């Protein structure tokens, strides 16, 4: 929140970061348990300038209070809900309950607990830890204006063929050979913004955004891999990134923009040779995995009316 103080522009916010909370829901009718584990970070823009300039803390919402609020609001959620809905619930509480708070920003990172299947059957109360993480961030103003973003962190994908890289700029510093046959691996970070602009316009289904997250993740992966039998050729990470982003916007009309980061994680063909001869002949079957240095590729795609 910006103010003018003593001839200077002054901006401030405060909050509580990395509040860890787990919530379990037990369905008494079928004995099925559901659970989530969230890391919650809260940032409040509020009228508490006096705490900075006059030793007056009377307008501060204590960060310990924010932490306790997370646990109380989780307890009040009698039905399972998405990370996005919980973030909206928290942000609306802070902007409506405290007159000093003008804007609340809530970010949640969901730990990827997945239900266990035993002999093909879903376990009633057993879970295992997965890989990629579901993220959500909401900004809610006191007026009710809302900005909602969801995302994926750590979606690791790899294919052993149907990838190449050729026709790039060559100069005196270029050593990379051109190829139409290589492994392609990356760890996708995705952020997408929804078109909803107020809490009243959010879908009523409390798990809508969880389902949308899974749908977006599947769309990204399916575009990366292509059909199960023949796959799809990738001329570059850039081309694949664009097709993945375009697939999401084409399929989901309530997503207004998407940003993708896709580092090119290299699998280098092994070559063991001496000045005299090749000691072992490898035919693109043994590789050296490397994660640094790596190519860094990122881009965003948005509809013309998007505010991203």
TrEMBL record:
Pathway: Purine metabolism; urate degradation; (S)-allantoin from urate: step 1/3. Belongs to the uricase family. PROSITE patterns: URICASE. One of its GO terms (biological process) is purine nucleobase catabolic process. CDD domains: Uricase (cd00445). Its main location: other. InterPro entries: Uricase, Uricase_CS. GO terms for cellular component: peroxisome. This is Uricase. Catalyzes the oxidation of uric acid to 5-hydroxyisourate, which is further processed to form (S)-allantoin. Urate binds at residues 63-64, 165, 182, 237-238, 264.
